[in-house]
Amino acid sequence: MYQFTVTSWNVRGIRSQAKKIKIFDYVSRLNADIVFFQETHLLKSEEKSLTDSNFNKIYNSCFNSRQRGVSVLLNKRLPVNIISSVIDPEGRYIIIKVVIYNKCFTILNLYAPNNDDPDFFHRIFSELSDLSADSSLIIGGDFNLALNTSLDRSSKCSNTKPSRSAKVLIDYMEDLGIGDVWRLNNPTKKEYTFFSPAHKSFSRIDFFLSNNSIIHKMSSKIHPIIISDHAPISLTLQCDSNQKVSSLWRFNTSLLNDSEFEKIIRKEWEDFLLTNDSPEISPSLLWETGKAVIRGKIISYSSFKKKQEQIAEKTLEEKIKKLTEEYAANPSELLWEKLQNTKLNLDIILSKKTDFILQQLRYKNFDYNNKSGKYLANQLKHNKENSFIATISNNSGQTLNLPQDINKIFRDYYQNLYSSNLNPDTEDIKTFLNKLNLPQLTIDQKTTLDSPLTLQELQNALDSMSTGKAPGPDGFPAEFLKHFWSMLAPLFFRVVTEIKNKGYVGGHMNTANIKLLLKPDKNPMLPSSYRPISLINTDLKIISKALTSRLEKVVQSIIHQDQTGFIKNRHSTDNVRRLFNVINMAQNSKKKKIILSLDAEKAFDRVNWSFLLTVLGKFGFGESFIQWISTLYNKPKASVTTNQITSQSFTLQRGTRQGCPLSPLLFAIFVEPLAAAVRQNSVIKGIHSSISEHKINLYADDILLYLEEPQSSLEEVFNLINSFSKLSDYSINWTKSSILPLTKNSWNPANQNPQHPSTTNTIKYLGLNISPNLNELIKLNHDPMLDKVTEDLRRWNNLPISLLGRIASVKMKILPKINYLFSMIPLKPPKQWFQRLDSATTKFYTRNKKPKISLSTLQKNKDEGGLEAPNFMHYYLANQILYLTEWLKPKEYYNTWLEIEQLDCKHIKLSDLPFITATLKHHNCFKNPLIASTLTAWWKALDITNVQLKISILSPIWHNPDFKNKKTPLYLKTWEESGITHLQDLFENDKIRPYNNLTQAFDINKSNFLQYLQVTETIKKNTPLDLTTLQPPELAIYMKKISTKSKKLSKIYRALSNTNCNYLPIAKWEAELSITPSTDFWTEICCNTFKMTKNTNLQLIQYKVLHRSHTTQQKMHKMGFLATDICSQCTQNTADSYLHALWLCSPVQHFWILITEKLSSILDCRIPLSPNLCLIGDLTMLQLPANQSQSILAALAIAKKTILLNWKDKKSLNINQWQNLLTEFISMEKMSALRKQKKITCFEERWTPFLIALNLNF
Prior knowledge:
Deoxyribonuclease I, Chain A, 6 domains, catalytic activity, Endo/exonu/phosph_ase_sf
């Protein structure tokens, strides 16, 4: 058992020697290992006054007067290693990252302002965001606020409302998963840390915050208020050193960039094979032993490197200690000089380490900041400690909180879950399956699946794996195997061959580690509320992935279209569209109809392997492929990790592991016989259309049943599933399943069997709230989503991210959620809903300030002067038009919902709807709200792209409400059967076909001339029969073209967003610069903004300059904030216009002269002193290679950054500042290029002249 104690105390000044003695004496009595002082009131020159024999490491933050001041003191007995520190220059806080007892902590001592200042806490937690990664937090000090006004203030205090600062702090506590240590240990107790003589009141404003994951190891105490008007408070952290912490090793992928490491590993593997590879040793044993040897070598190498890095520091520390002792015993000038030089050498080493860390942080900020990806996602992440399980309930309902007990509960739970008490007879399974009409694989498909796995297939499987994923128990991620594949592949291929031949995966290859994720809206106290993710070893995953690649090519031929989960080219949107069509169809029926939503209990985890293998045989899979599946499920093992504790492994007896590439497809095959049994059971009555019956929808284990005659149908479903469960281990939780009545009196709960599911007004399906009244879908789904999105945006508002980062945040975190609703629910939300969403995103983009660039401009394409912020209305339209592209597909692509919608269209084909005008509003099809929504979206899209909805050559002739003869749409059956269906059939060589030509071309009876006249005259009444005026809209042609393509949503959205206009303030620029260029010129200017660098900060500077969004004195005058618009930074006595501020102002003009001269010297060519080039980036006046043109633009953007940094004091502008910023930028560009390897050549081509001229050597 070890422990350490942190004491925090607002001392209200520690300058007096007498007071200092009293304070340190008391701190000593409290046995403090770490001390936080606030309000030291020390000047920089007085820092040494805190020196004490017990504290050998002291950090101070002093203010420029005898105010504020915080200090952190570390006791010399504490085994502490300092990693980094941040000292606030204003005397408010100190942050130190330390390692204590081999555990990493970030400790923060703060003294908050005594006024309500929420920005202080935003700044503090922004500082913490990078430093606190991979460490536990301990935050203490004087917060100058009460978290709970009813408990933390005495009754004499009248103010009961929490301050703005308190609200912000509470938000951060929730986001970061941290809590008030004393309060969590004393939920209702009243005790105070501060007495206010002026108000004669007490409050608890001094406290500690720490991670919820370690608070159970902490105790906190408030001591008497003595010496100061604040009480000292203490926190003690205890940890059982015998606790079994997870020892799972994980390869550090950064070693792959170490050439020395690569040579060592390759040599080690070569020597290992040379020594051990022989016919007597099985390839599997050799492989597992080889992994162990390589793992040991990696650990040894990493340890050696770490020791090498520390040896110089330790040597110097020992020397300093010895010299200090010698000098203390016998002071001399020589010893003093040696001691100071040694300290200087150590300081140089530490400074280099600090500089390296800062450089890495600057690189991350340069390359990843404000871009979609992990870096930004971590900033937005909510509740970073949600993987920690603080408490859990056992089977008796007892609450356990010790990590070892929690781990045991989960191990027992999963061991029981994956144990099968069912051992069905194979003949019984076959009897059940033989009653079903199941499809069979073809001979070719079977042969392909049964052929031996090739080395190329294994490599393809490895190449397809994502990087950055957690490895299995062996610790080797995909990156390691990819990097050393040429070295490892020969032996691994032998291993795969041996596994296939022996039918067993040896060693630890088939062991997985189970990590847990809490399911949304589930009780965290129950083990069943967590989703188990099996981390499988990469080598086994390669085999599974290769088999999956084969299986996914044939699975569509044996799995019915009712199942859309994880099947290639099938989508959950098909299920939902069908569901809504069935609901709509039921509204017009008097028959009793219900939807039964089934809740499968741990469906993936209860798959019986005997049943699965028998089903594979029934579908016609060959012996070899079935053997592969049998081998992979031959005594696999798993362990469970919770709170960094890993259990003993146990053997699995059933289930498909969530994390194995094969699992989704195997589950689809496993559950298909149940779906087939439902479809083929005549007692179970589905909901009928005029031509078909709809019974079942499946998305993996999410199942809906559409039932008529619900009483008898439900009983048969109940019996069928019970029969299926006895053979397969599949189980339905009937109490969590639900019945949704679709028609009045279709189900009477009073008469139902107690075992039947309960009746409900709504059901949850694929994350959507479903009602039998389709008009309620917006209220049930879109409104709650909008509230959640608004709250997320509010929570992120004060994060230190730029406009580009904010747009990226919305696209990464908000847009997918909104798009999901748009893709699933065709009904259009009201105008106010879109307005609220746009308002919330605008406030987020502008940090609640008045926007300088309109939202509509930000939503435009980058080459049009926008930043491609999402236009949610356009995304809604694009998602609806996706369904229209399904209408346009050839018939072989038809889905079940298409069949229902075609019935509502009667004689008009779905594929013809986009080419008929708004007369469709009066057609029967428009009564279907799904068709109506899609058509309305289509018409709106045409309007947005400035296209008139009109008759075209693609318009149908028959049953078209646009072509009516005596109020009846045209229809000639013989003509239709002859192939005359659309207006284009009436034309040849751009002219209407003469009657004789038409009869010959389509083999029509020549006695039909009157019909010919009737058709042509009826059409002429509505549109001239002139081919030039009958061309279909380009958007319609494009939709037909992409109807069978992938990634259609983004293509449709781009088609709606392209305006071929530019939204820069072009008129102002052209007037001031006296230019009249083409639109293409401004398009190129916009594109150059994002081509010159990948760094978003520099891109944004240039973007804002192009939009003239910086505030000048002229603008301030117009807004009424200044009495005059005359520039105060030069003697020209002229208005401070935008051009003046960035170009004509005397100090700015002088600065630009120096910049262009310097650039001319660097590139050995004339760089003109022109605002066209320097301000807007007009490259037409330069004759330079493309790469160097981009470097010129970057250098000029940095010059504009320099001007903006000196915006209020332009007389301070100097070229040295620009050169320093440019040097830093080039340094970051090189680091970025080196990290991306292939980019280094491009970097050298672009920046070599600068490196030479500026004498830069990074």
